[in-house]
Amino acid sequence: MAQDRFGLPVNCDQPAAVALYTEGLDLLLSANAGAAERLDAALAEAPDFALAHAARARLAQMYAQPAVAREHAGIARKQARGEREQGHVEAIALAVEGRAGDAMAQVARHARDFPRDALPLSLALGVYGLLGFSGRVDHHEAQRDLLESVAHGWDEDWWFLTYLGWSYAETFDPAKGAPLLDRALELNPRNAHAAHARAHAYYEAGEAAAGRDFVAAWLPDYDRDSQLHCHLTWHTALFALQLGDVDAALALYDDAIRPDVATSPPLFTLADAASLLWRLAAYGQTVDTAAWGPVAALAGNAFPHAGLPFADVHATMAAAAAGADVAARIAEIDALVAAGKLAAGPVVPALCRGLAAFDAGEPDRAVAILEPALSELARIGGSHAQRDVIEDTVIIGYLRAGQNQAAAEALERRTRHRAGHLDADWLGRIAV
Description:
This protein is mainly alpha-helical. It is 66% helix and 1% strand. The radius of gyration is 21 Å and the shape is globular.
């Protein structure tokens, strides 16, 4: 029986299909364009290829194509043979069906028996994965612990090193994570997830200039249609803001982040566009209300109903700044919390209300709502770099309310375990 590059059996007797699947899976795992085309070609060669259907389902899920994802997951379930293949497919099918708790339990079971099965394991990882969106305040630590628990099954593999290194960067040890990420990039220089994680390590270490230079050098050869092009551009813009180069940040937004040019999955584009414009406005730059219209429209079209907290928070930013209604979404979130159907809990409506108050020019009210929510902030998912926009808002809210000592204390709490990327120079540049 054929094997994949992780040494696991592949139940397909068509060598051409297996080769195409292997290429497609690596493109998927490295966030490069072309995965769908390779997987579709593999299925044209072998229509009953369960693992290829599972990978295609996962890719469709990532790009918010639920009908396509369910179709492929259903075929994969019917065609899966053997313990490994059935466990692999079941994890992906449960995730596609939105059964996050069941999917996470299946990933954990499968990882114990097949620690080198990358695609099911990947479901749990990243800031938008099953753990990231579990509502757990310790999801970064949980990902690190999961990866360390299966590390015995891995050799020096670019995919595994990427996520292990990132897990250290996100748990306040970028010095431990950076060498693993550098090695992952040596093994696969076009691994966009490793480039992305390395940007986070630079951010967490407070190395804005080095981070800007790294991403700027890596990004030009990355296909604009690939999953992380918009987000890596966002990282470059964030580094530019840290360095005081507002013009560069605006140019990057216009080139690759705004919704009418970005080609990334809807959640990525919404979060990147909304948070960058929000930061610019909060830092004292003039952001035309019209610029918010496409972002608010994306939020309304891609996430018309509440229920995904990370999307809800960024949709609220966009709607409030565009002058649109935020009350309906907040009411939906309140109803989900009251019914016990939102794992992240009350922090989500609190964040939305606080952001709306800040946009309405009520800094005292905004910080009164937002500051108590900071201890629960990780429950919405996302990375430290992404969630810093909320902490930025609290710090700037205190300054606008004339509560300078409270601003300094909030800043000190954030930087106690992290590099002081918001320092006195940063505060001095803000027009309040």
